[in-house]
Amino acid sequence: MFHGSMVAIVTPMAEDGSVQRDALADLIEWHVENGTDAIVPVGTTGESATLSHAEHCELIRFVVDRVAGRLPVIAGTGANATTEAIELTRCAMEAGADAALLVTPYYNKPTQEGLYLHYRAVAEAVPMPQILYNVPGRTACDMLPETVARLSHVANIVGIKEASGSLERVRDILDRCDGRLDVYSGDDALAREVILAGGKGVISVTANVAPRQMHEMCAAALAGDAGPAAEIDQRLAPLHRDLFLESNPIPVKWALFEMGRIGRGIRLPLTPLSECHRPKLRESLHAVGVL
Fold first, then answer.
1. Which of 24, 165, 188, 282 could form a disulfide with 206 if both were Cys (CB 3.0 to 4.6 A apart)?
2. Residues in contact with 231: Cβ distance below 8 Å, sequence separation at least 6, in sequence order
3. Of the residues 133, 184, 200, 253, which is catalytic?
4. Strand pairing of 38-40 and 201-204?
5. What is the model's pTM?
6. Which pLDDT belongs to residue 8?
């Protein structure tokens, strides 16, 4: 249903933490111009955990209005309370988003049965396309391939963003689901291999700063052109690595500030990128040609 380089877009903020909507609108236009294949707002890279419920829903509406049908909008609507996830997903549907992306419930550490029932409840309550999101390094919750396979039989669960860092895990999910849902990489460094293995794309942090290159790499991989995809991916490797010098989205927001695209704001408990890491990330931005 969705494919290619899908940017997990940041939420631009001023130093006081207020949302910079003009900067977000400019980012959206930049992504449209540079071939980004979908916009994914208010996910974990978009600092959803520090947004109020009202801000979260308003930002989905803002992005949908600004995109104006030119790209798919996949709204982050995950939460660690099933009722809240339903409410946010309903907000996304009413705003006109094309799909919802739901991270596994964090901190609660539900069982696999709890995960199955959580996602099934959201899917049954809100009739829109939904993408699962597994990122155990951030949530302390790992959704296993057998649970994903069970959920692949729910009609409006259409994909999974798998960010366990394991290509073997991706292949296991692809085998078990047998085409019933699409698989997207949640790790930029694995995106090319995931696509060549049968995945449909990546929900990307790197695309925030190098949208054209990420689009071209994904397009080559989707076309089966492994050589050109590898060449582009090799050039992007410094960003895949250094955009995670500290917890995401700290480095990527600093990079975009350094590029003159957003303000320097980030909400506590996150803080701006530490001084000691800035020269290394600046060097990588220069190496890739985006600074």
1. 188
2. none
3. 133
4. unpaired
5. 0.97
6. 98
